[in-house]
Amino acid sequence: MKKVMMGNHALSYGAKLARSQVIAAYPITPQTQVVELLSEMCSDGTLDAKFINVESEHSAMAACIGASVAGARAFTATSSQGLALMHEMLHWAAGGRHPIVMGNINRSMAPGWSIWTDQNDSLSERDTGWMQYYCASNQEVLDTVIQAFKVSERLMIPGMVILDAFALSHTYEVVDVPDQALVDKYLPPFKPEIRLTPSDPRAFGGLTGSEHYFELRYKLQKYMEKAPALIEETGREFEKIFGRNLGLVDAYRCDDADFVFVTSGTAGFTARVVVDEFRKSGLKAGNLRIKVFRPFPFAKVREVLKKVKKAAVVDRNCSYGAHGIFYQEVKSALYGEAGMPPVFGYIAGLGGRDITTDSFKEVAAHALAKDKADEEIVWIGVKK
Amino acid sequence: MKKEKKMTLTLPAEELMACGHLACQGCGATLAMRYMLKALGQKTALCIPACCWAVIDGPYPYSSLDVPIYHCAFETAASTATGVKAGLEMTGDSETAVVAWAGDGGTFDIGLQALSGAAERNEDIIYVCYDNEAYMNTGIQRSSATPYGAWTTTTPVKHFKTRPKKDIVAIMAAHRIPYIATASISHPEDFVKKMRKAKDIKGTRFFHVYAPCPTGWKSRPEDTVKLARMAVQNAYFPLYEIEDGDKVTLNLKLKDKKPVNDYIRIQGRFRHLTEAQVASIQAEVDARWERLLKNCAA
Ligand SMILES: Cc1ncc(C[n+]2csc(CCOP(=O)(O)OP(=O)(O)O)c2C)c(N)n1
Ligand code: SF4
Ligand SMILES: [Mg+2]
Considering only CA atoms, which of B138, B139, B140, B132 is closest in space to residue B107? Predict the structure, then answer.
């Protein structure tokens, strides 16, 4: 069934179709509609789940962890300050191997108060052990929630489905809402091998000495390493049932490209307008949108960029004192391989400043004029 | 022939706590756990945040308890327990009693927000605070449950704690939850009876359990139960329950209320107190006791 909906509601529908059993959430702009709709669905019986009106995001994640260890499928959603408040619990969810799925609306971190998009909130949680999916359309948001539960529950690693504030969260698009019966076929009920129950009394997460802790984290990494193949496999399976593929990256006109914009989130669609224009004027341009950031699709990125002459990474984030974060990852993906293109790093759109076609033209002009990538980060559209 | 007196054991014989745990000798918190589990039985799930009990239970992969435990973050006993309860219910288990088991630091201080949230929503959990009146796990620092006059490593003798203990029971009563009780490891029958009563009530139930700590109080391990009993008998820690936020019932009447001095003087943490300071503690205890009696009558 096709429906016109905002990105936030795409998250809610995803959580509903995945038959989430416990939802604990706390409101924050621009996430509120996600939980408002879910709360409504729980109260009118459309969704058979418990909705917990917690008093903070920290408690939201704690409650999701409790629900998950008890064997229930748990969902929450938040944004920026809320995500930062959860930080301790994000480590807990991943370290405890609780396959919670969470929506995060990318919003800039205060101060000054900003409700507009950039990625520093979710990228600050890079090393917590969560999988991160950066979406570019409302359809992708809905589909990814369903897929994320499947991947998370197989690996027992939580997953974060991420979308840009307003550019996606509040933008209405046509979304094909899949049939519940088909979703049930794709996503079986959550049945963890071990759970918190008096009939099998165990202690979870107790004092762990150095003779065990190291191996537990080794396993987390090993399971993370299984994720890229599993995301592709479940993406193909998704395509068979629903007709839409869900991969690690989304490459647009990259096959024969000489120059590629590397983007994430919604910015890529703007880049594609410029790519088409460049193509008309004879420049073989392309766009590589990195969808899955954790685990980072190193092999996939190498595969796409190896034939390219130059790559320009546009980051809507900054690791202060270093670089744009996607830029760092792309460079490390290509490092040490023969014949890889130079990579240029750009920062744009912090605090929700628009990334326009002109922004991408400025990026291209800079990158095309240089022969060698230097370490300079170029800020696009900054008033100096 | 002399008539034999018959003793009946009212405490369940069942032991859900094994020896081999890691507590110090004479730890009051271990007795608290043991009695609670006797009352609730095996169909219990525990959420234990950072506190001495996070260690007492034993290191991975061991546990000294025969019930499931989720070790949760310091400030999340109430919120994690809320999630566990919801998760168990959604997977078809509405019988298991879900218990948040936290120290005074995890309850009075860092976990108060989550506890208040859960209580306001009247989550169907039992919250037990075992109170040893300081952060013991991290080496005896003051908490807001540390009483006036006490030494801790962050309230050294020259600057001992001059603010009174936070009244957690009044705070919980203000949430109008269905059941609140104080309990002491010196009065296991009373503790078990109230815990069983609580088990059959739906909604948030809160227990404030007095649990002396010889390590932190600088008292003798063999005096743990004695200290707990003294605190009950001198009204330093009276035994009472509150239903629906305002129905207060005294569980143990004190015909012969003892002075606090004897109790204070066998604890090293109070060694520096002058007679006048002990007298001011006595005055404060008397005033609290009068207030409690008035609340019981009301
Ligand atoms: C967020 C956070 N801050 C600080 C700590 C360190 N910490 C662990 S236990 C503890 C004190 C616990 O005191 P209490 O709750 O009274 O329990 P007790 O150790 O006395 O049994 C502290 C401060 C922590 N684990 N987490
Ligand atoms: S420090 Fe105190 S509360 Fe902690 S285990 Fe030792 S006696 Fe028990
Ligand atoms: Mg304590």
Answer: B132
